[in-house]
Amino acid sequence: MLDRVLQWDREAFVYLNSLGIEQYDFFWSTVTKFPTWIPLFVLIISLFFIKFTKRDALSMILTLLLMVFFVTTLTDLTKEVVTRLRPNNDDELHTLIRILRSPSGYSFFSGHASSSFSITTLVVLFLRQHFKWVYLFYIWPILFVMSRIYVGVHFPIDLMVGALVGMLAAWIFYKLYQLLISPYLRSTHHV
């Protein structure tokens, strides 16, 4: 069963990667980089300070940073345990695919997917009561993970599992925030 799933994963990757068109290489190569998204991060931080007190905003941002550290650590540990080659480093696939990036390291699961979906999900959970349009932030992780297939560095399952891990981590950190931090902040507001 696992062999069939992995075979489907490889075939799906080769098919999706082959859809790439040279005219879009610059776009996808830009989308796949974290610095491209700095204006989005600045907007998110600004929204926290617009809608919450300084103390609340800082506690939410700290929660976000702790979650990113947790997700990054979990992703890196999983990659070292699973040791799945990236498509761009797989000799069987190397000649069949378009490669625009050549990172070393392992593929399962995607750090781009886990980090971007965790950040977006936690931001949405914090801001959804204040901005109905906040769900549009999901455009970022969707484009971000699609770019990883386009540039030739992740299989679809790497991305799907990374996204699920990221969303689950965000939900856990949101619940921890509600349980451990939010009551403390409310009690200090009334003192």
What is this entry, summarized?
By secondary structure, the protein is mainly α. The protein has helices at residues 2-18, 25-31, 38-51, 54-82, 111-127, 139-150, 156-189. The radius of gyration is 19 Å and the shape is elongated.
Identify the notable features of this structure and list them briefly.
single chain, 191 residues, mainly alpha, Vanadium-containing Chloroperoxidase, domain 1, 68% helix
Can you describe what's shown?
α5 (111-127) runs antiparallel to α6 (139-150). The chain is 68% helix and 0% strand. The protein is elongated, with a radius of gyration of 19 Å. The chain contains seven helices and no strands. The protein has 191 residues and is mainly α. The model has no long low-confidence stretch (mean pLDDT 91).
Name the assembly state: single chain
**Count of helical stretches:** 7
Portion in helices: 55-70%
- Briefly note the structural class of the backbone: mainly alpha
Low-confidence stretches: none
Query: Quick one: how many beta strands?
Result: 0
- Content of β-strand: under 5%
Within CATH, the superfamily carries the name: Phosphatidic acid phosphatase type 2/haloperoxidase
Number of domains: 1
SSE order and pairing:
Blueprint: H1 2-18, H2 25-31, H3 38-51, H4 54-82, H5 111-127, H6 139-150, H7 156-189
Helix pairs in contact: 2-6, 3-4, 4-5, 4-7, 5-6, 5-7
